[in-house]
Design goal:
Number of helices: 13
Largest sheet: 9 strands, mixed
Bound molecules: (4S)-2,6-dioxohexahydropyrimidine-4-carboxylic acid, zinc ion
Strand content: 15-25%
Length: 432
């Protein structure tokens, strides 16, 4: 269906081309046809974007869509819809499903289901080890040959240093990326939160920032040894940021991510015993949060990723030590970054779009995403109102409601999402 959409008068923020000017964007047949001053062609749907920002569609390198296996918590359809509502046009789906995405058949199945839903591009992440068991390597070559770019045992670190070394070396041949969840298993065993003043007052078992730093250090050493591409997931500790900063200064090809919840909250929020603040890695101190913010500002941290982790109401509604870790994030990520970082001036809007779209698209090898917003490119776009205030509350497009941002007032709201030239979200409402 040849649909023509004209977005008029938007502030076009496009880190890939460096553009930050007011312009009209014409979309035709799934692609960007014209950018500049454009007269509405006959039959075009005109979207008045005066006062709104148009940017390349957001890209999440870290989401748990739970399908196959936990369709009661999320599906590719509901998670995809949550992504679109949050302005995302591409999402990497983590491998800790049931069955685990450790072979070509599961990857193929996730892709098929995602294509059927057709609300955003889904890039399945392959597991590093078979069954996420941390021992034998998964079928990395087979999956990489299908175009899988990211490999991760997210939820835990790869415990065997030798296995991780082999995976980094092997993945290198495919220019694939090993994405590590950095937590020393023996130090985090039984831990409910960050170890520090707050955990002492709450009397909860805790794990120190060193649990992350130790693994980040080991992984960086292995990346140096092998020349393999390493990506460090959801960093939470100031010390880890410093390690990445030094590795980058030494010229290593390492990338790092941070989540909106680690940028927004600290372990002080756990005094309410609200299980929505129970996440892995845990929320840490204000100093750690500030180090994450400056790491994002100076480019030590490349991307903001949601770690969207839906959990069933009855599971999160448990005693703190029984509840699984995780917060949903796809529907709030952009607003959280705008509210907590852009608005107070910690980062520019352009840096925010870079970290949420351009940089993650590059990391994923998602060539149709992340800009530039130029004629001929696939029309994957988000249009948002940077000043609209809203309170985070159900209903969510996600099947789950375990949001750490529940009750927060955020500024910035997605108005339209265009996925391959189709309005999948229009006026803040999902269209499919
Ligand atoms: O909070 C988290 N939840 N962190 C992880 O690493 C895994 C995730 C999940 O799968 O629920
Ligand atoms: Zn993780």
């Amino acid at each position: 269906m040849p649909e023509r959409i004209l977005i008029t008068g938007a502030r076009v923020v496009d880190p890939a081309s460096g553009r930050d000017t007011s312009a009209d964007v014409l979309v035709e047949g799934g692609r960007i046809a014209e950018v500049g001053s454009v007269a509405a062609p006959r039959g075009a749907t005109v979207l008045d974007a005066d006062g709104l920002v148009a940017a390349p569609g957001l890209v999440d390198v870290h989401a748990h869509l739970r399908e196959p296996g936990r369709e009661d918590e999320e599906t590719i359809e509901t998670g995809g819809r949550a992504a679109a509502m949050g302005g995302y046009t591409a999402v990497a789906a983590m491998a800790n499903t049931d069955p685990v995405a450790d072979n070509a058949a599961v990857i193929e199945e996730v892709r098929t289901r995602a294509a059927r839903v057709g609300i955003c591009d889904v890039f399945p992440v392959g597991a590093i080890t078979r069954g996420l068991a941390g021992e034998e390597m998964a079928a990395i070559g087979e999956m990489a040959e299908m175009g899988v770019r990211l490999f991760s045992d997210d939820g835990r670190s790869v415990p065997s240093t030798r296995t991780l070394r082999n995976a980094l070396s092997y993945a290198r041949a495919f220019d694939a990326v090993i994405a590590e969840h950095c937590e020393d298993a023996s130090l985090v065993e039984g831990a409910q939160m960050h170890e520090g003043y707050a955990s002492f007052t709450l009397g909860l078992a805790a794990s120190p920032a060193e649990a992350e730093e130790i693994v980040a250090f080991r992984d960086l050493a292995l990346a140096r040894l092998t020349g393999g591409r390493l990506h460090l997931c959801h960093l939470s500790a100031a010390g880890s940021i410093e390690l990445v900063r030094r590795a980058k200064a030494a010229g290593m090809r390492v990338t790092a991510e941070v989540t909106p919840h680690h940028l927004a909250f600290t372990d002080d929020h756990l005094t309410s015993y609200d299980t929505n603040f129970k996440v892995n890695p845990p929320l840490r101190t204000a100093e750690d949060r500030d180090a994450l913010r400056s790491g994002l500002a100076d480019g030590t941290i490349d991307v903001v990723a949601t770690d969207h982790a839906p959990h069933a109401v009855e599971e999160k509604d448990a005693e703190f030590d029984q509840a699984p870790p995780g917060t949903i994030g796809l529907e709030t990520a952009l607003a959280a970054v705008l509210t907590d970082l852009v608005e107070p001036g910690a980062i520019t809007l352009r840096r925010a779009i870079d970290a949420m779209s351009t940089a993650p698209a590059r990391l994923l090898g998602a060539q149709d995403h992340g800009g530039p917003i130029e004629p001929g490119r696939a029309a994957n776009l988000v249009v948002f109102d940077p000043s609209a205030e809203w309170v985070v509350e159900p209903p969510f497009a996600s099947k789950s409601r375990n949001s750490a941002f529940l009750g927060s007032t955020l500024r910035g709201r997605v108005v339209h999402t265009l996925y391959r030239g189709q309005l999948v979200v229009a006026d803040g409402k999902a269209q499919r």
